[in-house]
Amino acid sequence: MTDLRIEKDIWIKADPTAVFDALTSSEQMVKYFPLDKVTSSWRVDSQLTMQGMADGRRFTDYGWIRALDRPTVFAYTYWGDSHGTENHPEHHVSISYHLFPEAGGTRVDMVHSNLPSQDYRAVMNDAWDHLLGGLKAYIESAPT
Q1: Which has more confidence, 79 or 140?
Q2: Helix, strand, or coil here: 46?
Q3: Distance (Å, rounded) from C-alpha 97 to C-alpha 105?
Q4: Which H or E run contains 8?
Q5: Sheet holding 105-113: strands in order across?
Q6: Whole-angstrom Cα distance, residue 22 to residue 92?
Q7: Fewest 10 Å CB contacts: which of 56, 74, 103, 105?
């Protein structure tokens, strides 16, 4: 385990339920993240597999849902075949989203922790701005 982490937040003009549903839907995730397939039964302790492409390379992330409390918390751990590490528990990274109703919308606090290296942290720090921006644009453009 490492202390390397990224913390980001973003405000989205939508209620927490709409944001939570977008974060926990196989069909919706592929519309705003660089994924083409997401598989899960969406229950705590169930598997979560995400496949996609980044920087012209295919990747698969293999994870487990750790918290799922609609509409406030979604958290999972995973190992990715693009991380440059072996698939052992100490190499699994964690992502958590905490959603808070705020001023006509939702504040999303995201933490990405146990990152494998400073280089990975630097890449993902920039990537999260784009990823969360994609989530915001997707949700805010959805018909109400």
Answers
A1: 140
A2: coil
A3: 15
A4: strand 5-12
A5: 5-12, 105-113, 93-102, 73-80, 57-69, 47-54, 35-40
A6: 23
A7: 56
At the second CATH level, the architecture of 5-141 is: 2-Layer Sandwich (3.30)
93-102 vs 105-113, strand pairing mode: antiparallel
Torsion of CA 73, 74, 78, 84, to 10 degrees: -80
Predicted local distance difference test score (pLDDT) of residue 81? 73
Distance of alpha carbon 50 from alpha carbon 79, whole angstroms: 10
> For residue 37, which amino acid is it?
K
User: In whole angstroms, what is the distance from residue 86 CA to residue 104 CA?
Assistant: 44
What is the tens place of the pLDDT at every residue in 92-133? 899 999 999 998 999 999 999 999 889 989 999 999 999 999
pTM of the predicted protein model: 0.93
Amino acid at 125: N
Which residue is it, tokens 């598989």?
39
pLDDT reading at 33 higher than 70: yes
